[in-house]
């Protein structure tokens, strides 16, 4: 039986598959994250890069005291803290996490270099404004400190929040702690319509659950304008924006019609095809995951003109799969909505 441990990892809004930028990271003077714009664990769950069947990664909780944990194998649970909001999120567990030697780390570093994976990591850092120079200065023996097989990942589909006063987590430091118990996770809510808007400003403010959507000022302006259009059309008590699904995600706009709801997903892509591609899976999840029916109609709103091919595509989806998905064009200049198609 492996020892059960728990470790804090850096804040990330890209599912720890690639860097997400400095938002939510430690900002304290002297902190590594503040200095570099990235954390050690940005790629912890990126299992697309395997070496002999293992994913290699670095976690500060072990890397800063590698000699102490040499040759050990642990079952490690992970949590993260948004340093700006102070919210805490439980991520799940990886079993059979092996601590690797500096010599093995050098071998893995060279494998990454030969396969072009280091260049990919550099590009990912650069895309979020993190320090590529600082990352390149890492010695090969310090590149990674753990390895595990992907099959041993028991990571939650969605991180779940827990209280800062939960006795299961008594320390905020990036160290390896003995796991006493799992924290009491905040219960997932049911979808219950609640009118109102969040009055989101057209600024660069982002929240955790916006992790799959880059900050988009045009999107925010569209959302505000369309929310007001629907308020006039359906009444203030029947319209909501950024509505919680009950599963840790938020719907751009919801309109209530007596006993049913319509979910709207807004996209700013320059083609209808791309907007449909980006929005469809989100709407399906919002409406039906895991086994619910929260909406009777799904609508994609975009400034892009609906082409004949895209129109035929939506018609085929409705007839073949009986998915009630429609499209509305939004006129950015006149701030008006076209007919559903």
Could you name the key traits of this structure?
341 residues; alpha+beta; Trna Endonuclease, Chain: A, domain 1; 2 domains; seven-stranded mixed beta sheet; six-stranded mixed beta sheet; 8 helices; 13 strands; 26% helix; 24% strand; elongated
Task: Set out the fold topology.
Layout: E1 3-9, H1 32-36, E2 55-57, H2 60-63, E3 73-81, E4 88-99, H3 102-114, H4 117-127, H5 132-136, E5 146-148, E6 153-162, E7 177-178, H6 217-234, E8 239-244, E9 250-257, E10 260-266, H7 272-288, E11 297-302, H8 308-321, E12 325-331, E13 336-337
The count of strands amounts to 13
Counting H and I runs of at least 4 residues, what is the number of helices? 8
Q: In whole angstroms, how far apart are the ends? A: 59 Å
Order of helices and strands: EHEHEEHHHEEEHEEEHEHEE
Q: How is the quaternary structure best described?
A: single chain
SS content category: alpha+beta
What fraction, in percent, of the residue positions are helical? Answer: 25-40%
Low-confidence stretches: 199-215
Query: What is the C-alpha radius of gyration, as a whole number of Å?
Result: 23 Å
* Beta strand %: 15-25%
Number of domains: 2
Largest sheet: 7 strands, mixed
Shape, principal axes of CA atoms: elongated
Mean pLDDT: 92
């Amino acid at each position: 039986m492996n020892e059960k441990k728990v470790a804090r990892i850096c804040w990330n809004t890209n599912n720890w598959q690639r860097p997400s930028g400095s938002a939510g990271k430690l900002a304290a003077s002297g902190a590594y994250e503040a200095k570099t714009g990235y954390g050690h664990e940005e790629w912890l769950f990126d299992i697309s890069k395997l070496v002999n069947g293992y994913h290699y990664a670095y976690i500060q909780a072990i890397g800063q005291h590698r000699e102490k944990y040499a040759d050990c194998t642990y079952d490690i649970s992970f949590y993260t803290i948004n340093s700006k909001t102070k919210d805490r999120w439980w991520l799940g567990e990886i079993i059979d996490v092996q601590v690797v030697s500096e010599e093995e780390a050098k071998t893995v570093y060279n494998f990454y270099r030969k396969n072009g994976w280091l260049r990919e990591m550099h590009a990912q850092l650069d895309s979020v404004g993190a320090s590529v120079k600082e990352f390149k200065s890492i010695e090969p023996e310090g590149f990674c400190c753990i390895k595990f097989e992907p099959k041993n990942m028991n990571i939650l589909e969605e991180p779940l929040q827990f209280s800062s006063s939960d006795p299961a987590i008594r320390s905020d430091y990036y160290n390896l702690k003995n796991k006493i118990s799992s924290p009491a996770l905040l219960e997932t809510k049911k979808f219950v319509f609640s009118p109102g808007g969040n009055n989101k400003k057209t600024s660069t403010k982002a929240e955790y659950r916006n992790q799959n959507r880059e900050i988009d000022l045009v999107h925010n302006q569209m959302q505000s304008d369309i929310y007001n259009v629907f308020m006039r059309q359906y009444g203030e008590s029947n319209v909501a924006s950024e509505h919680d699904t009950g599963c840790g995600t938020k719907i751009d706009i919801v309109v209530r019609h007596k006993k049913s709801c319509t979910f709207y997903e807004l996209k700013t892509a320059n083609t209808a095809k791309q907007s449909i591609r980006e929005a469809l899976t989100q709407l399906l999840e919002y409406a039906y995951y895991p086994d619910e029916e929260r909406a009777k109609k799904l609508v994609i709103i975009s400034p892009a003109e609906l082409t004949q091919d895209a129109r035929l595509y939506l018609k085929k989806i409705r007839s073949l799969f009986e998915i009630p998905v429609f499209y509305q064009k939004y006129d950015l200049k006149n701030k008006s909505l076209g007919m559903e198609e």
